[in-house]
Amino acid sequence: MRVAAFAAFFFLSLAPVLIASEGEATSHRTSAAAVIHEINLARQNPAGYAVYLEELRSTFNGSAIVLPGGTRIRTKEGTRAVDEAIRFLRHVQPMPALALSAGISHAAEDHCADQAGGGFGHAGSDRSNPMARISRYGTCSGGWAENISYGKSTARDVVLALIVDDGQPARKHRKNIFNPVYNYAGAAFGRHARFGTMCSIDFAGGYAERGQVTDEPLVARNF
């Protein structure tokens, strides 16, 4: 089963104003394990995770918001998207944690390294799609998806923004995170010439690692 992949889009609140995620580059290294751990916090205890969004809502000043990592962004929907996300988290049933996959994380790392010069979107410079990249390191079954976030430097900032999914009426990034079909995931952070940082997150229903893929937390090679 093939599942569409989606990238996260936001507007910078400070010049230059660019389409894509907000934020500035930092020297902070965030691991694949930290991102998947954060996603699992939301999946396993969504009502508890709603508290973080309630705290986030209190930082609104007009349409601008300050993420926990200190990034200030101008939203498209204002508090409406955050309120809707809080309601979702209060009502969705807890679900099992995703297993962190070294192979899937290597695929995410590849995409971060590939886009370090300023690339954007899910297609690689070699025209690869997420499924092709995941398949370099193992065998995927039961569906796949990809979320990409540009400009945020902490795992919590990435996951909060993807759950709120401001400006994306279908909330497809959130649906990927809370899709019960997925059992495995991997992630990587890397430098990005246009947006400072990027984070790629890949999901799979089933995944068999190929060869001796290490399970160490990954940061993109260029980071």
Shape: globular
Radius of gyration: 16 Å
Residues in β-strands, percent: 15-25%
What structural category do the secondary elements indicate?
Answer: alpha/beta
Query: Strands of the largest sheet, in order across it?
Result: 1-6-8-7-5
Number of helical elements = 7
In helices, the fraction of residues equals 25-40%
Largest sheet: 5 strands, mixed
How many extended strands? 8
Q: Spans with pLDDT under 50 lasting ≥5 residues?
A: 1-29, 217-223
**Helix and strand succession?**
EEHHEEHEHHEHHEE
**pLDDT averaged over residues:** 81
| First-residue to last-residue Cα separation | 33 Å
Write the layout of secondary structure elements.
Layout: E1 6-7, E2 11-12, H1 32-44, H2 46-57, E3 64-66, E4 72-74, H3 79-91, E5 99-100, H4 102-114, H5 130-134, E6 138-150, H6 155-164, H7 172-177, E7 184-192, E8 196-209
Parallel strand pairs: 1-6, 5-7
Antiparallel strand pairs: 2-4, 3-4, 6-8, 7-8
Question: Can you put this structure into words, describing what you see?
Answer:
- The structure is a single chain.
- A 5-stranded mixed beta sheet has the order 1-6-8-7-5.
- The protein is 32% helix and 22% strand.
- Strand 7 (184-192) and strand 8 (196-209) form a beta hairpin.
- The protein has 223 residues and is α/β, with parallel strands linked by helices.
- It has 7 helices and 8 strands; from the N terminus they run ββααββαβααβααββ.
- Residues 1-29 and 217-223 have low confidence and may be disordered.
- It has helices at 32-44, 46-57, 79-91, 102-114, 130-134, 155-164, 172-177, and strands at 6-7, 11-12, 64-66, 72-74, 99-100, 138-150, 184-192, 196-209.
